[in-house]
Design a protein that fits this description.
The chain has about 325 residues and is an alpha/beta fold. It has 10 helices and 8 strands. The two termini are about 20 Å apart. The structure holds uridine-5'-diphosphate and magnesium ion (MG).
Length: about 325
C-alpha cells in the first residue's frame, strides 16, 4: 500500500503486504540526513543476510531528515523487497527512531545498527550465532575507540564511571546500540512507556540471558556525526536521571551536613562572643560561606529542575514519535534472498 507523498498522516499499524509469517530477523536502521549511505550499506548487508539463510525485513527509519534521504530509501526499497521505510514527521532523535523500530519489528529477533556503516554488517552472523546458541540479547562490544575524539573518549569514560557508581543497573563497557534482541526482550522493552528513553539503559534493565561479541568500529562512511557536546551532555543526564535518584537525594545529606556544621560554628561564635566580646572582622569568611552556600543552593535547585522537567515530559505523555509516511514494498516478494 502506498501513501501519497502529499498526504501527511499518522499510520498506527504496520502496513506489510509481504507475507503474514513474521520474518526471522528485523534489522532496524535509523537514518538522519544520510540517504546516500543506503546503497553502500545494502551492498554489504544484503549478502550477509542472504548468507544467513534467514528471512528478514529491513526497517529504515528516516528520523526527519531535511534532505532527500527518504527518496533514497524508497529507491532502495524498489530494489530489495525486504526493505520497509518509515518517515518521521520531524526529527525526534535516535532513541525515538530505535523505539519505533522495536514497535514495528515483526521478527523473532531484531538487530539495531547505525546506518553510517560504523557497525559492520559482517558482525551479524556472530550475533545470530550467539542468539541461536540461547542468548536473548547479544551486544556487540567495540574493541577500538579511535573513531572518537580525545575529549569525547574522556567524557564518555567519566560518564561510565559515574553511572557505574550511582545507577541501579550495570552498563556493559563498550556496548552501544549495536545489538540483537530476542522477541522476548523486544516485547519487554515495548511495555515500557517512559518518554525519556535511554535505550542502552532500558535494554540492560530488562535482564535476560546475554552474550557479547567483539566488533571493530569503522570510520563513518559519509556525512557527519549528529552529536555535539550539548546533545551528548543531555543524553548523559537522561541516562543518569533515568536510572538513579542519587543526584536528587544527595542534597538531603549535603544539607544535613551543612546544617550540623552551621550549628557547631554558631555555638562556637556564640561562646566566643560571650568570652571575648564582639569581634568585627570576618568579612572574608562571611562572603566565602555565603557564596558557597548560594552556589550549592542554585546547583541543587538546578538538579531538581532537571528531574522536574523530565517528570513534566512524562506527565504530558506526548507520543515519542509521529510517523508521516510508511511504505512497504508494493509487490509481493519473498523476504529472504
Ligand atoms: N540518528 C538518528 N537521529 C538523530 C541522530 C542520529 O536517527 O537525531 C542516527 C543516525 O542516522 C545514525 C545513528 O543514529 O544511524 C548514529 O548517529 P551518529 O553517527 O551521528 O552518531 P555517532 O556514531 O557519532 O555516535
Ligand atoms: Mg556514527
Amino acid at each position: 500500500m502506498f501513501v501519497k507523498p502529499s498526504q501527511f498522516i499518522i499510520l498506527k499499524q504496520t502496513l506489510c503486504p509481504m507475507t503474514n509469517t513474521p520474518p526471522d530477523l528485523s534489522i532496524i536502521l535509523p537514518f538522519h540526513n544520510e540517504g546516500d549511505l543506503i546503497v553502500p550499506l545494502m551492498k554489504r548487508l544484503a549478502p550477509v543476510l542472504d548468507e544467513l539463510k534467514l528471512t528478514a525485513e529491513i526497517l529504515c527509519i528516516d528520523d526527519g531528515s531535511t534532505d532527500d534521504t527518504y527518496t533514497h530509501l524508497l529507491a532502495a526499497q524498489q530494489k530489495d523487497g525486504r526493505l520497509r521505510t518509515i518517515r518521521f514527521a520531524r526529527n525526534f532523535g535516535k532513541e525515538a527512531a530505535l523505539t519505533c523500530g522495536l514497535h514495528k519489528a515483526r521478527g523473532r529477533a531484531a538487530i539495531m545498527m547505525d546506518s553510517d556503516l560504523q557497525h559492520p554488517p559482517e558482525t551479524l552472523p556472530q550475533l545470530v550465532a550467539a542468539w541461536q546458541g540461547g542468548a536473548r540479547m547479544v551486544y556487540a562490544i567495540r574493541t577500538n575507540r579511535d573513531t572518537d575524539g580525545r575529549l569525547r573518549i574522556l567524557l564518555s569514560k567519566a560518564f561510565y564511571s559515574l553511572f557505574h557508581k550511582i545507577a541501579e543497573i550495570e552498563l556493559p563497557e563498550g556496548a552501544g546500540d549495536f545489538r540483537l534482541l530476542d522477541r522476548a526482550v523486544i516485547d519487554a522493552i515495548n511495555t515500557m512507556p517512559e518518554r525519556t528513553r535511554f535505550m542502552k539503559g532500558l535494554m540492560t534493565w530488562v535482564g535476560f540471558e546475554t552474550a557479547s561479541v567483539p566488533f571493530h568500529v569503522d570510520p563513518r562512511l559519509g556525512g557527519q556525526s549528529n552529536w555535539n557536546f550539548a546533545r551528548l551532555f543531555r543524553f548523559a543526564f537522561d541516562g543518569i536521571s533515568s536510572f538513579s535518584t542519587l543526584p536528587l537525594r544527595i542534597w538531603t545529606w549535603f544539607g544535613s551536613f551543612i546544617s550540623l556544621m552551621a550549628l557547631a560554628y554558631g555555638l562556637f561564635l556564640a561562646l566566643r562572643t560571650v568570652i571575648y566580646g564582639v569581634d568585627v572582622p570576618g568579612y572574608a569568611s562571611l562572603m566565602t560561606g555565603l557564596l558557597f552556600l548560594g552556589g550549592m543552593q542554585l546547583l541543587s535547585l538546578g538538579i531538581v529542575g532537571e528531574y522536574l522537567a523530565r517528570v513534566y515530559t512524562e506527565v504530558k505523555g506526548r507520543p515519542l514519535y509521529l510517523i508521516a509516511r510508511e511504505d512497504a514494498p508494493s509487490t509481493t516478494q519473498e523476504n529472504s534472498q
